[in-house]
Structures are given as structure tokens and as C-alpha cells.
Amino acid sequence: MATTSDIRNGLCIRYNHDIYKIIEFLHVKPGKGPAFVRTKLKSVTTGKVIDNTFSAGHKIDDVRVETHKFQYLYAEGDTYHFMNTEDYNQITLEKSTLDAPGLLKEGEVVTVIINSEDQMPLSVEMPASVILEVTATEPGVKGNTATNATKPATVETGAEVMVPLFINEGDKIKIETEKGTYKERIKE
């Protein structure tokens, strides 16, 4: 058993007969009244995100997990196939367990969180950013850069990302996986 002082991003807990991953938390100590922890929990089975508040010192049932590196092989409908980089065993995961399936490129190495008790994969952690090539975008019009203007661009995985006007087809861009936003253009 853990307490609210052990709460951190990525911690998996048992709550309401399901396993949730903490994706955001904030310790709040108001001037009047007891302290509490405001959290955002994501269900590892359904992908649903809920808000919850735990009072300070509340006991939480944490789930023992292991992390393993897996390489993404291919997708088949809503099923994604991965291979363990250590022992080459393959697993399949549903699209709902992935945080950003649209930014997943074949050959990408991700971290899979596995429940130690029953060896069930709980969730997939993407790298902080990925580098993808722009396959389709409208050409930027000169003179439209008075503000931070953006345009939609389709990357090689099929995902759509808003990019600045100077990005053209064939450019490689770095995308922040957590928010799915453009970070920078990669020069080669």
C-alpha cells in the first residue's frame, strides 16, 4: 500500500475495480482546511480519463509494474504488433492502450508497462518526441506571416499536425508526442 505522498506521473494504481495510470497530479495545501492531491487518472483498459481528488495521507493500492523496451512492427486494423528487443517475443495491443497511435512509425522503440502479477501489458509510453517526414501540405503563401500562422500537414504515419507556413512536403519535423504538436524542423 502506498499513500498520496508516493503519487507521481506514470504510477499505476487500482481504483474503482480498474487499473488507472496517473497522468497528472497536483499537491494542494490550502490555507484553511486539510491538504489534498488533485489527480488525472487514465484507465489502462478503456483509455477513459477521469479527475479525482485524494485527501492527504489517503492509502492508495499501487500496482507493481515492469517496463520493457518493445519495437513497433505493424498495425492490423485496431491491433498493433510489438516485439520485445531483449528476447524477441511478440505481443499485440489494442489501439486504446496507446497514447498517440497516429505518431507511431514502424521500427520505433517504445516502453511497454507490464503488470508484474499477471504479465498483462497495461500501457505504452512513447518517446518524448518523434521525427517524421511531411508527406502532404499546402504550400505557404509569402506575406501571410504577420502572426504565428499555421497550416495542417499530413506526416508519413497518416497523422495530421499543425505546422508553421514555411514547412514543405519532404521536410522532416520533430513532433512532441504528449500533445501531438510541432516542435521544430530537422535540417539534414
From TrEMBL:
The keyword Cytoplasm is annotated on this UniProt entry: yes
Coiled-coil zones: none
Annotated GO MF terms: translation elongation factor activity
Ranges for domain Translation elongation factor P/YeiP central: 67-122
Boundaries of every Elongation factor P C-terminal domain copy: 130-185
Keywords: Cytoplasm, Elongation factor, Protein biosynthesis
Gene3D superfamilies per the UniProt record, alphabetical: 2.30.30.30, Nucleic acid-binding proteins
SMART domains (UniProt xref): EFP, Elong-fact-P_C
Subcellular location: Cytoplasm
Main location: cytoplasm
Database matches in InterPro entries: Elong-fact-P_C, NA-bd_OB-fold, Rib_uL2_dom2, Transl_elong_fac_P/YeiP, Transl_elong_KOW-like, Transl_elong_P/YeiP_cen, Transl_elong_P/YeiP_CS, Transl_elongation_fac_P
Domain of life: Bacteria
Record-linked SUPFAM superfamilies: Nucleic acid-binding proteins, Translation proteins SH3-like domain
Xref: HAMAP family: EF_P
Role according to the record: Involved in peptide bond synthesis. Stimulates efficient translation and peptide-bond synthesis on native or reconstituted 70S ribosomes in vitro. Probably functions indirectly by altering the affinity of the ribosome for aminoacyl-tRNA, thus increasing their reactivity as acceptors for peptidyl transferase.
Recorded family membership: Belongs to the elongation factor P family.
Name of the protein: Elongation factor P
